[in-house]
Amino acid sequence: MAFEAFACLRILLFFVSVASFYFVFVLRLKPWCSCEICQSFVSSTWSLEFSNLCDWYSHLLRRSESGTIRVHVLDNIITANPENVEYMLNTRFDNYPKGKPFSAILGDLLGKGIFNVDGHLWKFQRKMASLELSNLSVKSYAFEIVVSEIRSRLIPLLSSVAGKENGVLDLQDVFRRFSFDSICKFSFGLDPGCLKLSLPVSEFAVAFDLASKLSAGRALTVSPLIWKIKRFFNLGSEKKLREAIKLVNVLAEELIKHKRNTDVSSHEDLLSRFMATIDDDKFLRDIVISFVLAGRDTIASALTTFFWLLSNHSDVILAIREESDRVMGSKNRDLASFEQLREMHYLQAAVHESMRLFPPVQFDSKFCQEDDILPDGTFVAKGTRVTYHPYAMGRMERIWGPNCLEFKPERWLQDGVFKQVNPFNYPVFQAGPRVCLGKEMGLVELKTVALSLIRQFDIQLASPNQTLQFTPGLTATVKKWFACGGTRKESIVLAVVQSKTSNRMQI
């Protein structure tokens, strides 16, 4: 009886809390705003014309004279104006931190990791990570991991299906497995084995995926009160999130405990290196989990959209192959070295161009500390969320010219040599004090994987004419779609793999 009474009381409190929330929500978010943007957002009529929310925002930002819009019902300013981006990320960096609202969303998963904090905690981790990631031996260690994963697992996996009648793989799943194996080896010294030929299910990977997805889902709720109430009562998605994070924590704690009992002085993984200066195991866990999150999904996302673009641009594949033959030799089937990759300017251009159109992180938000005015004249009140939008910026004619919607690696080349652009026009890796520390290592991984597959296989997408749709999340993940009335689940990035023929059959 006491248990039943408690359960009824718990349910009653939940519904009272939800009712209270909706009352506050109605007062706070001004759903009566009659502007075109807010009405379209609230009613979801934007989805009648656009496949992705980011495409709708891109349309609105192109149409805006300043390249900035307001979504009043979300108290969010969204900009694709490079001057505003530079102001936020560099000029007034201290006035636009990650902010407590963002930290709360990812706090249970990332804790006090570098991507979820501001101030002295961020500065300490930034300095420490910068010293480690700029170390030549660390870069070499990361490269060796990538090369080993390609040779021992990625190429054998694709070879196992190449030429078969049903030689089809879900590239997005393959790239996620590849990047998870690689980043876990680099961060923990742990090999989950996700990319073995049998494509096993990793309990750690499943828990990590679920925790990432549900944490990102918090940002999609109309108010943080919703997920906080669910977390308080341990209900629904918050219950699943708690269970997933518990499993992630158990494994992380076991790894740290094991390393504490062994000599890690000769180990190259980040966890072993950080242990030399950090005694707090909880803090260590937060730091390394943050690197796993950043290094896994971004790489997989970038590779997925790159090969989707290549499927419709056989001329780019041909140009990459010809360039690699000049640098490596046409009969060389080994993987490219650091030095050889540096000489491949067209490959570098193609990777950058792909991420211009499909950045792994499509948008990023900061929270204004004090009242401010952006360079385009937009007033920003204290506490307002300000979002800069790399996805939309890649589609702005005023930044990239009238052919901005085209996939043209040549726009990055000057006399055949790759040329960097203003980072505030292309904030794919952020810019300013928070610019991505793993940028160069990430680019090397992307180019090494892409080149190894382009030189050895012909990859044709099973559904090349499908429009890319993305699931909401921390990074750009291609949606699954259902064919034949939902009876057959497929990924839009299913690929037919063939060994590359001697006459280099184009895909």
Automatic annotation (TrEMBL):
Q: Name one Pfam family in it.
A: p450
Q: Which InterPro entries match?
A: Cyt_P450, Cyt_P450_E_grp-I, Cyt_P450_sf
What is the species listed in this Swiss-Prot or TrEMBL entry? Abeliophyllum distichum
Q: Keyword set for this entry?
A: Heme, Iron, Membrane, Metal-binding, Oxidoreductase, Transmembrane, Transmembrane helix
Q: Name one GO molecular function term.
A: oxidoreductase activity
Its primary localisation, in coarse terms, equals membrane
Q: How does it sit in the membrane?
A: Single-pass membrane protein
Task: Write down the superkingdom of origin.
Answer: Eukaryota
Query: This protein is called what?
Result: Cytochrome
The entry marks the following residues as binding heme, namely C436
Give the record's family classification.
Belongs to the cytochrome P450 family.
The record's subcellular location field reads:
Membrane
Its ancestry begins with: Eukaryota, Viridiplantae, Streptophyta, Embryophyta, Tracheophyta
